[in-house]
Amino acid sequence: xxxxxxxxxxxxxxxxxxxxxxxxxxxxxxxxxxxxxxxxxxxxxxxxxxxxxxxxxxxxxxxxxxxxxxxxxxxxxxxxxxxxxxxxxxxxxxxxxxxxxxxxxxxxxxxxxxxxxxxxxxxxxxxxxxxxxxxxxxxxxxxxxxxxxxxxxxxxxxxxxxxxxxxxxxxxxxxxxxxxxxxxxxxxxxxxxxxxxxxxxxxxxxxxxxxxxxxxxxxxxxxxxxxxxxx
Amino acid sequence: xxxxxxxxxxxxxxxxxxxxxxxxxxxxxxxxxxxxxxxxxxxxxxxxxxxxxxxxxxxxxxxxxxxxxxxxxxxxxxxxxxxxxxxxxxxxxxxxxxxxxxxxxxxxxxxxxxxx
Lengths: 231, 116
What we know:
The complex is a heterodimer of chains A (231) and B (116).
Chain A: E1 12-21, H1 24-40, E2 43-48, H2 55-66, E3 72-78, H3 83-89, E4 94-99, H4 108-115, E5 125-129, E6 146-152, H5 159-162, H6 164-168, E7 172-176, H7 188-198, E8 203-206, H8 215-230
Helix pairs in contact in A: 1-4
Chain B: H1 2-17, H2 20-23, E1 26-34, H3 41-54, E2 62-68, E3 71-73, E4 80-82, E5 100-102, E6 106-115
Parallel strand pairs in B: 1-2
Antiparallel strand pairs in B: 1-6, 3-4, 3-5
């Protein structure tokens, strides 16, 4: 015979229907960054892409072109080493390395922590070169004005549908390493079509740091956004 | 790595939202995550278990994850479309739309507390 349990259920379960964004802590800090950038009228651009698609080279090229016209600075995120910041500094602009110590994306808190290292009042354009990764950086708002994603011709033109969130949240897609187009099976038309099926407002620009194709248009785009920000 | 920081974010967000005394009574966390959130429920469960190894404070708190599919609502004709193959195009009028109404969520949807 089974002994009847005398143990009664005790206590009350209370539910709180919260619907809190689980990145609320991040977004709170991103908002502080946005306000600070609005005060100093610094254009903040978050550069994302896979590893090895040419973000740092683009930063170098942009610095060479614009450093005599505007004040530009870069903060660059990587899991380890200060190599990228060193490369950017060689062009004569300020660069600061954020070593994430294994974390695969930058979070608003990391950006905020280093902001006071820059004299923002005198910086027109601040780039955040994110960790090379098309997945998680898409979820973390860093308080940027624009998100620019590089898509190298060597990566294959099928990425926008594989990593839709990144392309949905970007304002501009730069098809980089365009000088290699004759040698790789990459269709700019196909990548643009896929990317625009995800985000019909996405601007697309073809660029090569080597031949300087598209670099003028890119710099003009930046100068126009700086002008808008500074009113 | 991504899932580990998501778990840290959840815990930090809850600590911002609730008093410590109340958090001691927490028994379950319910998340709602969209297909676009880049969160894989199985990996998040693993990261959640791993989190307790370094900080056992919430080791008795259950984690429930609900996944949501992708839907857009057309800005022009208001039709709601289930997005397939990441084509963000209205099934009714054929216009493109970025107005995602479901599928992007990363929500702490519900938290349960137990009183005894």
